[in-house]
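Input sequence (137 aa), recorded before submission:
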Amino acid sequence: MAEEKYVIPEEPQYRVPDIRKLQDSDPVIASEIMNPTLIEPILESIAYHEKHKAELSEDGKIPAEQLPSGVPGGVPVLGKDGKVPPEQLPALGGHTAQAEEPENKNLLWIDTANDNIIKFYDPESETWKPVGAVWWR
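Predicted structure, token format:
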């Protein structure tokens, strides 16, 4: 019985450049056995991932210099004040509790001057609106 999942070998017999070198004179007769419109994108994908894979450091983490910088999912670039600029923060990426409305419109705001009502910033009306509460028993 065949294995349920194919395990990719650590050292495959053919690497991307080797497969591309197959010619009709080779024993496998490349044009009859391989479909280049299917195989070529797979080979390009494998080559891309091999070229762009990160190496883990001794602690098992990806070193910061191998992470993309200033892009979603990457390492943020700090502003001149040493803080992450608001445009690099995700929407509703946290909360703050204070009496005055925060400058960062991506946060949930706990309005301590107004009975600790939780508010979000609505860009359409350009105002802070209370988050609707749901109660159940």
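Checked by second reader. The longest strand covers residues 117-122.
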